[in-house]
Write the C-alpha coordinates for this entry.
Amino acid sequence: MPVSDSVDLGPGADTDGDTADGLDDVELPINELFYSLQGEGTLAGVPSVFVRTSGCNLRCWFCDSYHTSWEPTHARLSLVEILAEIDSHDADHVVLTGGEPLLHEGSTALLEALADRNYHTTVETNGTIFRDAPIDLASISPKLSSSTPTPERDPTGTGEWERRHETDRIDLDALARLIETYEFQLKFVVTDADDVSEVCNLLEDVRAAADTRIRDTDVLLMPEGATRDRLAETRHRVADLAMEYGFRYTPRLHVDLWNDAPET
Ligand code: SF4
Protein backbone atom coordinates (compact mmCIF):
# COMPACT_ATOMS: atom_id res chain seq x y z
CA MET A 1 0.00 0.00 0.00
CA PRO A 2 1.39 3.46 -0.76
CA VAL A 3 2.93 5.05 2.28
CA SER A 4 0.67 8.07 2.07
CA ASP A 5 -2.25 5.75 2.85
CA SER A 6 -0.62 3.44 5.35
CA VAL A 7 1.91 5.08 7.63
CA ASP A 8 0.72 5.61 11.17
CA LEU A 9 3.27 7.86 12.85
CA GLY A 10 2.15 6.67 16.23
CA PRO A 11 1.77 8.41 19.57
CA GLY A 12 4.48 10.85 20.42
CA ALA A 13 5.70 11.29 16.88
CA ASP A 14 7.05 14.81 16.48
CA THR A 15 5.67 16.05 13.21
CA ASP A 16 5.68 19.70 14.19
CA GLY A 17 9.31 20.20 13.43
CA ASP A 18 12.43 18.65 14.81
CA THR A 19 14.32 21.46 13.18
CA ALA A 20 17.12 21.63 15.73
CA ASP A 21 18.95 18.85 13.88
CA GLY A 22 17.43 19.76 10.51
CA LEU A 23 15.59 16.45 10.16
CA ASP A 24 12.28 18.12 9.37
CA ASP A 25 13.81 20.04 6.48
CA VAL A 26 14.85 16.90 4.60
CA GLU A 27 12.35 14.78 2.69
CA LEU A 28 12.54 11.55 0.75
CA PRO A 29 10.13 10.16 -1.86
CA ILE A 30 8.76 7.07 -0.15
CA ASN A 31 6.82 4.25 -1.76
CA GLU A 32 6.50 1.93 1.25
CA LEU A 33 7.63 1.84 4.88
CA PHE A 34 7.00 -1.46 6.63
CA TYR A 35 8.26 -4.09 9.06
CA SER A 36 9.07 -7.55 7.75
CA LEU A 37 11.84 -10.15 7.52
CA GLN A 38 14.80 -9.49 5.27
CA GLY A 39 14.14 -11.97 2.47
CA GLU A 40 17.40 -11.95 0.55
CA GLY A 41 21.13 -12.17 1.07
CA THR A 42 23.37 -12.81 4.05
CA LEU A 43 20.86 -11.30 6.51
CA ALA A 44 17.86 -13.30 5.24
CA GLY A 45 15.44 -13.91 8.09
CA VAL A 46 16.43 -10.87 10.19
CA PRO A 47 13.45 -8.74 11.33
CA SER A 48 13.93 -5.34 9.69
CA VAL A 49 12.15 -2.11 8.93
CA PHE A 50 12.12 -1.44 5.19
CA VAL A 51 12.23 2.10 3.84
CA ARG A 52 11.46 1.84 0.14
CA THR A 53 12.26 5.02 -1.73
CA SER A 54 10.60 5.86 -5.01
CA GLY A 55 12.55 6.60 -8.19
CA CYS A 56 15.17 4.62 -10.10
CA ASN A 57 17.72 5.47 -12.78
CA LEU A 58 17.21 2.04 -14.40
CA ARG A 59 14.18 0.13 -15.72
CA CYS A 60 14.60 -3.63 -15.36
CA TRP A 61 11.73 -5.37 -17.15
CA PHE A 62 11.29 -7.71 -14.17
CA CYS A 63 11.38 -4.98 -11.50
CA ASP A 64 9.52 -6.30 -8.46
CA SER A 65 8.89 -2.80 -7.13
CA TYR A 66 7.12 -1.40 -10.18
CA HIS A 67 5.84 1.66 -8.33
CA THR A 68 9.37 2.81 -7.61
CA SER A 69 10.63 2.59 -11.17
CA TRP A 70 8.18 2.26 -14.08
CA GLU A 71 5.39 4.14 -12.36
CA PRO A 72 6.93 5.94 -9.37
CA THR A 73 4.71 7.14 -6.56
CA HIS A 74 5.18 10.70 -5.44
CA ALA A 75 4.47 10.60 -1.71
CA ARG A 76 7.16 12.37 0.30
CA LEU A 77 7.95 12.09 4.00
CA SER A 78 10.26 14.15 6.16
CA LEU A 79 13.06 12.40 8.00
CA VAL A 80 11.23 13.09 11.28
CA GLU A 81 8.22 11.16 9.98
CA ILE A 82 10.37 8.32 8.63
CA LEU A 83 12.35 7.98 11.88
CA ALA A 84 9.16 8.03 13.98
CA GLU A 85 7.79 5.11 11.96
CA ILE A 86 11.07 3.19 12.17
CA ASP A 87 11.32 3.76 15.93
CA SER A 88 7.77 2.44 16.39
CA HIS A 89 8.96 -1.08 15.49
CA ASP A 90 11.06 -3.33 17.69
CA ALA A 91 13.86 -3.80 15.17
CA ASP A 92 17.61 -3.24 15.18
CA HIS A 93 17.95 -3.47 11.42
CA VAL A 94 16.82 -0.99 8.79
CA VAL A 95 16.91 -1.70 5.07
CA LEU A 96 17.01 1.31 2.78
CA THR A 97 15.82 0.08 -0.58
CA GLY A 98 14.04 1.26 -3.69
CA GLY A 99 13.99 2.03 -6.44
CA GLU A 100 17.52 3.28 -6.22
CA PRO A 101 17.91 4.86 -2.77
CA LEU A 102 21.31 6.42 -3.51
CA LEU A 103 19.71 8.65 -6.16
CA HIS A 104 18.49 10.85 -3.32
CA GLU A 105 20.69 13.23 -1.34
CA GLY A 106 18.30 12.84 1.60
CA SER A 107 19.35 9.18 1.92
CA THR A 108 22.70 10.31 3.37
CA ALA A 109 20.96 12.35 6.10
CA LEU A 110 18.66 9.43 6.89
CA LEU A 111 21.60 7.01 7.15
CA GLU A 112 23.45 9.45 9.43
CA ALA A 113 20.39 9.76 11.69
CA LEU A 114 20.03 5.95 11.79
CA ALA A 115 23.73 5.55 12.68
CA ASP A 116 23.25 8.06 15.53
CA ARG A 117 20.44 5.82 16.80
CA ASN A 118 22.64 2.68 16.53
CA TYR A 119 20.58 0.93 13.86
CA HIS A 120 22.29 -1.56 11.57
CA THR A 121 21.69 -0.32 8.04
CA THR A 122 21.60 -2.23 4.80
CA VAL A 123 21.41 -0.25 1.59
CA GLU A 124 20.08 -2.16 -1.42
CA THR A 125 21.52 -0.50 -4.51
CA ASN A 126 21.94 -1.28 -8.19
CA GLY A 127 25.58 -0.22 -7.86
CA THR A 128 25.55 2.69 -10.29
CA ILE A 129 25.79 5.50 -7.70
CA PHE A 130 28.27 6.05 -4.86
CA ARG A 131 27.44 8.11 -1.79
CA ASP A 132 29.60 8.64 1.26
CA ALA A 133 27.33 7.64 4.15
CA PRO A 134 27.34 5.39 7.22
CA ILE A 135 26.28 2.09 5.65
CA ASP A 136 26.79 -1.20 7.51
CA LEU A 137 26.08 -3.45 4.54
CA ALA A 138 25.99 -2.42 0.90
CA SER A 139 23.85 -5.00 -0.86
CA ILE A 140 24.90 -4.34 -4.43
CA SER A 141 22.83 -5.80 -7.24
CA PRO A 142 24.39 -4.98 -10.61
CA LYS A 143 21.97 -5.52 -13.43
CA LEU A 144 22.83 -8.05 -16.15
CA SER A 145 21.96 -7.68 -19.83
CA SER A 146 18.96 -9.97 -19.28
CA SER A 147 17.37 -7.12 -17.28
CA THR A 148 17.14 -4.79 -20.28
CA PRO A 149 13.57 -3.80 -21.24
CA THR A 150 13.56 -4.74 -24.91
CA PRO A 151 10.27 -3.82 -26.64
CA GLU A 152 9.00 -7.41 -26.20
CA ARG A 153 9.69 -7.32 -22.45
CA ASP A 154 9.04 -3.68 -21.60
CA PRO A 155 5.90 -3.59 -19.40
CA THR A 156 4.82 -0.40 -21.19
CA GLY A 157 5.39 -2.04 -24.59
CA THR A 158 7.32 0.97 -25.94
CA GLY A 159 10.97 -0.01 -25.54
CA GLU A 160 11.69 3.64 -24.68
CA TRP A 161 14.09 2.76 -21.88
CA GLU A 162 16.03 0.05 -23.70
CA ARG A 163 19.05 2.13 -24.73
CA ARG A 164 19.28 4.22 -21.56
CA HIS A 165 19.02 1.17 -19.31
CA GLU A 166 21.64 -0.70 -21.33
CA THR A 167 24.03 2.28 -21.24
CA ASP A 168 23.64 3.00 -17.51
CA ARG A 169 23.25 -0.40 -15.88
CA ILE A 170 26.97 -0.96 -15.12
CA ASP A 171 29.30 1.70 -13.70
CA LEU A 172 32.63 0.09 -12.80
CA ASP A 173 33.90 3.16 -10.89
CA ALA A 174 30.82 3.30 -8.68
CA LEU A 175 30.92 -0.47 -8.12
CA ALA A 176 34.60 -0.36 -7.13
CA ARG A 177 34.07 2.53 -4.70
CA LEU A 178 31.10 0.84 -3.04
CA ILE A 179 33.07 -2.39 -2.63
CA GLU A 180 36.18 -0.62 -1.31
CA THR A 181 34.24 1.53 1.15
CA TYR A 182 31.61 -0.74 2.67
CA GLU A 183 31.06 -4.26 3.87
CA PHE A 184 29.29 -5.64 0.82
CA GLN A 185 27.53 -8.46 -0.93
CA LEU A 186 27.17 -8.71 -4.70
CA LYS A 187 23.73 -10.06 -5.52
CA PHE A 188 22.71 -11.06 -9.03
CA VAL A 189 19.25 -11.91 -10.30
CA VAL A 190 19.77 -15.08 -12.35
CA THR A 191 17.52 -16.98 -14.73
CA ASP A 192 19.90 -19.33 -16.51
CA ALA A 193 23.52 -20.28 -17.26
CA ASP A 194 24.03 -17.36 -19.67
CA ASP A 195 23.51 -14.98 -16.76
CA VAL A 196 26.24 -16.70 -14.73
CA SER A 197 28.73 -16.47 -17.62
CA GLU A 198 28.02 -12.75 -17.64
CA VAL A 199 28.48 -12.59 -13.85
CA CYS A 200 31.93 -14.20 -14.27
CA ASN A 201 32.95 -11.66 -16.96
CA LEU A 202 31.72 -8.74 -14.86
CA LEU A 203 33.50 -10.09 -11.76
CA GLU A 204 36.76 -10.15 -13.69
CA ASP A 205 36.31 -6.45 -14.51
CA VAL A 206 35.25 -5.49 -10.99
CA ARG A 207 38.12 -7.43 -9.40
CA ALA A 208 40.51 -5.54 -11.67
CA ALA A 209 38.92 -2.19 -10.78
CA ALA A 210 38.58 -2.60 -6.98
CA ASP A 211 41.39 -2.78 -4.43
CA THR A 212 39.28 -4.92 -2.09
CA ARG A 213 39.32 -8.69 -2.43
CA ILE A 214 36.04 -10.13 -3.69
CA ARG A 215 35.60 -13.74 -2.60
CA ASP A 216 33.34 -16.10 -4.52
CA THR A 217 31.21 -16.33 -1.38
CA ASP A 218 30.64 -12.55 -1.54
CA VAL A 219 28.76 -13.29 -4.76
CA LEU A 220 25.13 -14.30 -4.35
CA LEU A 221 22.96 -15.82 -7.05
CA MET A 222 19.28 -15.09 -6.55
CA PRO A 223 16.64 -16.81 -8.69
CA GLU A 224 14.59 -14.49 -10.89
CA GLY A 225 10.91 -14.48 -9.93
CA ALA A 226 8.59 -12.30 -7.88
CA THR A 227 5.95 -15.03 -7.38
CA ARG A 228 6.09 -18.55 -5.93
CA ASP A 229 5.08 -20.01 -9.31
CA ARG A 230 7.89 -18.25 -11.14
CA LEU A 231 10.45 -19.11 -8.44
CA ALA A 232 9.46 -22.77 -8.73
CA GLU A 233 10.63 -22.58 -12.34
CA THR A 234 13.99 -20.91 -11.66
CA ARG A 235 15.32 -21.73 -8.19
CA HIS A 236 16.56 -25.30 -8.70
CA ARG A 237 18.43 -24.26 -11.84
CA VAL A 238 20.02 -21.34 -9.99
CA ALA A 239 20.90 -23.54 -6.98
CA ASP A 240 22.69 -25.95 -9.34
CA LEU A 241 24.57 -23.03 -10.93
CA ALA A 242 25.65 -21.75 -7.50
CA MET A 243 27.15 -25.15 -6.69
CA GLU A 244 28.79 -25.45 -10.11
CA TYR A 245 30.52 -22.06 -9.86
CA GLY A 246 31.14 -21.89 -6.09
CA PHE A 247 28.97 -18.81 -5.59
CA ARG A 248 26.46 -18.44 -2.80
CA TYR A 249 22.74 -19.07 -3.37
CA THR A 250 20.25 -16.72 -1.78
CA PRO A 251 16.57 -17.55 -1.39
CA ARG A 252 13.77 -15.02 -1.71
CA LEU A 253 12.31 -15.82 1.66
CA HIS A 254 9.58 -13.16 1.48
CA VAL A 255 8.25 -14.71 -1.75
CA ASP A 256 8.30 -18.19 -0.18
CA LEU A 257 6.39 -16.86 2.83
CA TRP A 258 4.04 -14.28 1.34
CA ASN A 259 4.19 -14.70 -2.43
CA ASP A 260 3.91 -11.26 -4.09
CA ALA A 261 1.99 -9.48 -1.31
CA PRO A 262 2.91 -5.79 -0.90
CA GLU A 263 4.90 -4.64 2.15
CA THR A 264 6.74 -7.96 2.60
S1 SF4 B 1 17.45 -1.37 -10.50
FE1 SF4 B 1 16.09 -2.31 -9.01
S2 SF4 B 1 14.48 -0.78 -8.59
FE2 SF4 B 1 15.57 -0.15 -10.47
S3 SF4 B 1 14.31 -0.99 -12.12
FE3 SF4 B 1 15.94 -2.50 -11.65
S4 SF4 B 1 15.00 -3.91 -10.15
FE4 SF4 B 1 13.71 -2.05 -10.23
Notes: Residues 23-258 form a domain with the TIM Barrel fold (CATH 3.20.20.70). The beta strands are 27-37, 47-53, 76-78, 93-97, 120-125, 137-140, 184-190, 219-223, 248-249.
